Amino acid sequence: MKKRSLGLFATAGILLTLALAGCGNKTVESDKESSAKPKEEQTLTVYSAGPDGLAANIQQAFEEKTGIKVEMFQGTTGKILSRLEAEKNNPVADVVVLASVASMDGLKETDQLQSYKEAANAKKINSDWSDAKGYYYGYSASALGIAYNTKNTQQAPAEWTDLAKAEWQNKINIPDPSLSGSAVDFLYGYTEAEKMAWATMEKWKENGLQVNGANKEALDAVITGDKNATISGVDYMAYKAKADGEPVEIVYPKSGTVVSPRAVGILKDAKNVDSAKAYVDFLLSDEGQKLVANAYLLPGNKDIPVKDRAALDEIPQLNVDWKGAEAKQLEVLTKFNGIFR
């Protein structure tokens, strides 16, 4: 892959995961202030694509365990990439956590990350989700399925093509891939693995498929009954909604679906490298992986049991190669927008 400036992500039409609005919840201390502090009081700066509850729980547990203070900025992967680009002449972040391994691989290819191959528990983490040279680790993943309203659905869909049938007319949606990195991952994986994928999407359009905001907005439309099913539904969100008593269930088509890894890496210009390594170690530890499982995500360590959800080996998967995916994802996103815009 040819090196490109990170500006491609922020400006070339929302590549990968990309809601590029807004930045920042807290003000990060200046370099001068940080360097003037005693070493033990320096703050580790983490940019995290969430989920919000999980990110907060990891921050609290890590701070309690290590005594290292964490300054956390939470946003979508697109917001984080945009912020990194804006700060490229004065880097702030030490650790980045993205909801798309393709985006993380793009950071590696543009020389934005440093290797941490000796990370504790690295060998326990799914190698298919991680970089072989230790530039990033897929510490968790979500699977993308069909989330449907159990009150409005007489027969659950079994295949992606089922949603082109008359009973689903004007009752289906998909998260907007310009706002959802997982939706871009789904489109990339589905079109790479299924030769009839684009023809199926044309049929979805004819059947009234609505492009419906980000992941939460798409799922909320199903929960309220405005829509009966969402394509590329993020499973951990559906499982959590179900646990909260909402009338929602998720299925994975028998022909296979996309599992979308989430990755952590240390930025090349990190100022607090030792603390950054400790943070990565914690995410990969059994304690960190149990927090991942408690958020209804798939842990990167397969030995950690999942919570009230399908395990990885129970999900039919499409064969997706994420290495070098980001350039192809832009092509897929452009074609999708040409059909649905």
Automatic annotation (TrEMBL):
GO terms for biological process: thiamine transport. Transmembrane segments: none annotated. InterPro entries: Ferric-bd. It holds the Pfam family SBP_bac_6. GO terms for cellular component: outer membrane-bounded periplasmic space. The keyword Signal applies. It comes from the Bacteria. CDD domains: PBP2_Fbp_like_2. Fe cation binds at Y236. Keywords: Iron, Metal-binding, Signal. Residues 1-21 form the signal peptide. One of its GO terms (molecular function) is thiamine pyrophosphate binding. This is ABC transporter substrate-binding protein.
